[in-house]
TrEMBL record:
Protein name from the UniProt record: Transporter
Transmembrane segments: 6-26, 38-57, 63-85, 97-117, 123-147, 167-188, 194-211, 223-245, 251-271, 283-306
Entry keyword Iron: no
UniProt KW Repeat keyword: no
Subcellular location: Cell membrane
GO annotation, biological process: transmembrane transport
Length: 307
């Protein structure tokens, strides 16, 4: 348990530090908007290319690993739809519930996997998100189209968002270099290593700066349901599916961490663009980010006990 807390607490201390910067507006709101762009379009893709291209992925149960993650995502989606039949939430509110229940914060995910499993863990995590990000995007856009009935949610728009996603492109490049065994000059490897070193710290600080505690005061039942689905039920579903595939402990740990992650901050942007409930989405993002410190600690402690 001490090892888990040693890995987990620094991640959340960085988020808390980012939040403290927000309270004093340091260095400025404009700085953090630009920092988000730098991290998303340059630093994080550099990290994924570097880790995937240099990782040893031999003898990996890749198919079972990825399928487990995808099945858990769809299982939570189905459960969300069933719950909504009873609750009869508005389409806008339900779209936020789904985003809160199946999307994940990439920065927290990679940061925690790196702290617990090191470079090999990041490479495996990158392999998972290569498939998870486009599937989750398709699900979320489809939910907006069916429940919000917003004409902005088009099929071509969905395809473009996937093809232009820098994290997916980076995973494909890094995975391609690794799979086809392309030679990378030492200079290029060192360049990527240095460039990517700041990706996770800066990304985690940005998460803290984006937190909005005031939004949680307007909590609704949908907030509790979405957070329970994401932080409690999804890790359990992921664990049981992983057991069915008899995955080894390292793969299972990555999948359960993935399942237990708070939703992505970018969920708010999608909700705003496509007619979702932005107030609910902001409260879900903040609540899950803060509360995940406790749920992730418990879940990883439980995994450690089983192993």
């Amino acid at each position: 348990m001490e090892h888990i807390l040693t890995a987990l607490i620094p991640i959340f201390l960085l988020i808390l530090t980012g939040f403290s910067f927000k309270k004093i507006d340091f260095p400025s709101s404009e700085f953090w908007k630009n920092a988000d762009k730098l991290t998303y379009f340059i630093l994080m893709p550099a990290l994924l290319v570097f880790k995937l291209s240099t990782a040893n992925l031999n003898n990996l149960e890749a198919f079972d690993f990825v399928v487990t993650g995808i099945l858990a995502i769809f299982a939570i989606l189905v459960i969300s739809i069933i719950i909504n039949f009873k609750m009869k939430s508005s389409g806008a509110a339900f779209s936020s519930v789904v985003q809160g229940a199946i999307r994940f914060n990439t920065y927290v995910f990679l940061g925690l996997v790196s702290a617990i499993l090191g470079d090999e863990g990041i490479a495996l995590a990158a392999l998972l998100i290569t498939f998870a990000i486009p599937i989750i995007n398709v699900i979320c856009i489809t939910v907006f189209a069916f429940y919000v009935n917003d004409t902005k949610a088009t099929f071509m728009g969905m395809i473009k968002s996937i093809v232009k996603n820098p994290l997916i492109v980076a995973c494909l490049i890094g995975g391609g270099i690794n799979y086809f065994d392309f030679y990378m000059p030492i200079v290029a490897v060192k360049f990527l290593e240095i460039l990517s070193a700041t990706a996770l710290p800066l990304g985690l600080l940005s998460i803290g700066f984006a937190l909005d505690l005031n939004s949680v005061k307007e909590a609704k039942l949908e907030l509790i349901i979405s957070s329970a689905l994401k932080l409690i039920l999804m890790p359990l579903v992921m664990f049981f599916i992983g057991e069915l595939f008899s995955l080894d402990s390292s793969l299972m740990t990555i999948l359960v961490i993935f399942a237990a992650m708070p939703t992505a901050s970018s969920s708010f942007i999608l909700a705003r663009q496509l007619g979702g409930d932005t107030n609910l989405m902001a409260s879900i993002i903040t609540f899950e980010t803060l509360f995940s410190l406790f749920t992730v600690s418990f879940i990883l402690g439980f995994l450690q006990y089983l192993n």
